[in-house]
Each structure stands twice: as structure tokens, then as C-alpha cells.
Specification:
It contains eleven helices and nine strands. Helix 1 crosses helix 5. The chain has 295 residues and is α/β, with parallel strands linked by helices. Strands 2-1-3-4-5 form a five-stranded parallel beta sheet, with helices on both faces. The structure holds flavin mononucleotide and iron/sulfur cluster (2 copies). The site of one iron/sulfur cluster (SF4) has 14 residues, from helix 8.
């Protein structure tokens, strides 16, 4: 059986959830292994070059892939030598469809991979706006359907390319430059409450090793990439941004719990809102590679 390596970055868990879906969907056609790129960068996991195809799955940060993803591709990914690859992004909404996949695909191609497939699977947003549980459940249902369709296309090597106009790529470039400038400031704005148990989990988990326990209290350096992992992963919810407090969702969510919740119609009044209407096309779209082929 051919080997598929899924290189993923997941700040707060959504992309990991998606990668697990891909793994279970694709395991009939491939022997699949999920590789968390920040663990490779931090020398926790070794880079194993023994794969026939590579998948790259990432969350969207300010319309682009997180900077750590480009760092991995440039400095840690070995030569593709013509191996096939695909790119999937997991944004928190379906707007500005396209931009970053092209940029990520370009950098992977520079390393000698043949990128035949680019697609998007929306997941719940992890900053600013907490979607209601029934809405999250709808997004997860749509994600599962899309993941199945994408799996068929990947297994049959069906090409799919995302559209990305010059304007969209320009907006993506500008937005992600602003984010890169602001991210270290966000890290320095993080405050730890007194209920911190000094367990060290945040320092161990941080993908950029931006947190040190000095002497036993977390201190934040200048390498933050706003992945939100320390904030949502703290067992006692002790980490909070101060100036950027609006970044943190009021209540974190557990995808596995929401997945198994029963939702009744009385809880779906959000469907009348304008914001939902903008999602509707995505949620109802019967995904196929044809819909996403470059024009
Ligand atoms: C700093 C930051 C910027 C984000 N920017 C965007 C964005 O421009 N567009 C979008 O759709 N989602 C955006 N998101 C939402 C995430 O891409 C989305 O929730 C993703 O599924 C999170 O995946 P993860 O849990 O694997 O990190 C952003 C999230 C963060 C933390
Ligand atoms: S994970 Fe939370 S409790 Fe543990 S050291 Fe970090 S801030 Fe403190
Ligand atoms: S400090 Fe927190 S938000 Fe910043 S990169 Fe580390 S884990 Fe992510």
C-alpha cells in the first residue's frame, strides 16, 4: 500500500480534527500518517522521508497560512523529487476563497512536489466570534461531506485548483504582513491569572517555544504566532490577552461533544441572520473538483 504523509499545523485543534477525518477516509487507499510540523521543528518527532504522497493541511491566519507552515516547507521539508502533493486549508469562514492555497502550493512546488489538488474545508472560527453550537454542528457535518469528496478526488488523483485573482493575492499579502507584525505584540499582551497551577503545559505545547517557566510562572517572548493553543489549552483557563481581549472566544468549544449533541429546530434561529446567509452557499454546495478547477 502507498504511504501518505499528512503534514499539518493545528493551533487550537480544528485542523487536527480535519486531519483525523482525512486519515480515516483515506486509509482504504493509503497507509496514512499524520505529522505535526511544529513537533518536527521542535525535534519532538523525526522527519521521515519515507512517503509516496504528501498532504499539507493548515488553518488560515489573516487570509494566509501561518508563518510556521512556510518555515517548515522552506527549512524542514525534504525534496519532493516529483512526488504528488495536495493542499487543504481549514479557515473559520468560506469568504475570500482561494488566496493562500496558491502561495502554499507555490512554495511546495519549489521543493519539487507536483501539487495536483487544492481545496478548502471550513471549520469553526477560533477567534473573535463564538458560533452557536448548532451552527458549529452544521459546519462539522459539511466538513465531513467535503472531506469524503476530497478523499475521492485525492485517491483518484483528480486535479482541483482554487481560484485566486491578483487582487485577492494582494489583499492576502497585505493582511498577512500586518498579522506577522502584530503577532509578537499579541504574545507580549498575554497575562497569566493567579489560578495558574504552574503545570508547564503551555510552555511544553507552544509551537514556537515562546513560553518559558521563569522561575515557575509562564513568561512570553517575542515569537508568538497567535495560534491560540496556550489560551484554549490551559487546564484552568488562566491565560488571557489584555489589550487584545476580543481575540479570545468567550467560551471554548469541544468538537467531539458538539458532534454528538441533539440540536432541535428552536435553536436554529441564527439561520435568519445575514452572516449565516453568506455561509449558506458553502454549506449547501455539493462539492466536486469541477467546482474548484482554476478558470
Ligand atoms: C490569528 C488568527 C487569524 C485568523 N484569520 C482567519 C482568516 O483570515 N480567515 C478565516 O476564515 N479564518 C481565520 N482564522 C480562523 C482559523 O483559521 C480557523 O478557526 C481554523 O479552523 C483554526 O484551526 P486550528 O484550530 O487547527 O488552529 C484565524 C484564526 C487566528 C487564530
Ligand atoms: S497551562 Fe495554565 S496552569 Fe499550566 S502553567 Fe500554563 S498558564 Fe499555568
Ligand atoms: S504563545 Fe500561545 S498563542 Fe503564541 S505561539 Fe505560543 S502557544 Fe501560540
Amino acid at each position: 500500500m502507498k504511504k501518505l504523509a499528512l503534514f499539518i499545523f493545528s493551533g487550537s485543534g480544528n485542523t487536527r480534527y480535519l486531519a483525523e477525518l482525512f486519515k480515516s477516509n483515506l486509509s482504504q487507499s493509503f497507509s496514512v500518517e499524520i505529522k505535526e510540523i511544529d513537533k518536527i521543528i521542535r525535534n519532538i518527532d523525526p522527519f521521515d522521508n519515507d512517503f509516496d504522497m504528501a498532504g499539507f493541511i493548515y488553518p488560515v491566519h489573516a487570509l494566509n497560512a501561518p508563518s510556521i507552515f512556510y518555515d517548515f516547507i522552506k527549512n524542514y521539508l525534504t525534496d519532493g523529487n516529483g512526488r504528488s502533493a495536495f493542499v487543504v486549508r481549514s479557515p473559520g469562514d468560506p469568504f475570500f476563497d482561494g488566496g493562500s492555497c496558491k502561495e502554499v502550493a507555490k512554495s511546495i512546488q519549489k521543493k519539487g512536489y507536483e501539487v495536483f489538488h487544492e481545496s478548502m474545508i471550513v471549520m469553526p472560527v477560533n477567534i473573535f466570534l463564538r458560533y452557536k453550537d448548532p451552527f458549529i454542528k452544521e459546519i462539522l457535518e459539511a466538513a465531513k461531506k467535503r472531506a469524503k469528496a476530497v478523499r475521492r478526488e485525492i485517491a483518484s488523483l483528480t486535479p482541483a485548483k482554487q481560484n485566486a485573482s491578483f487582487l485577492l493575492r494582494l489583499i492576502t499579502f497585505i493582511a498577512s504582513r500586518i498579522e506577522s507584525f502584530g503577532a509578537p505584540l499579541f504574545g507580549k499582551d498575554l497575562k497569566v491569572k493567579n489560578n495558574c497551577t504552574k503545570c508547564g503545559k503551555c510552555a511544553n505545547d507552544c509551537p514556537t517555544q515562546n513560553i518559558s517557566m521563569i522561575p515557575d510562572k509562564p513568561r512570553f517572548g517575542w515569537k508568538c504566532i497567535i495560534c491560540m493553543r496556550c489560551i484554549y489549552g490551559c487546564p484552568v483557563n488562566a491565560i488571557n490577552p489584555f489589550v487584545f481581549s476580543f481575540f479570545k472566544l468567550k467560551k471554548w468549544y469541544n468538537l467531539k461533544n458538539i458532534e454528538s449533541e441533539n440540536i432541535n429546530n428552536a435553536e436554529t434561529e441564527y439561520r435568519n441572520r445575514k452572516f449565516y446567509k453568506m455561509f449558506e452557499k458553502y454549506l449547501k454546495d455539493k462539492y466536486s473538483a469541477k467546482n474548484h478547477r482554476e478558470v
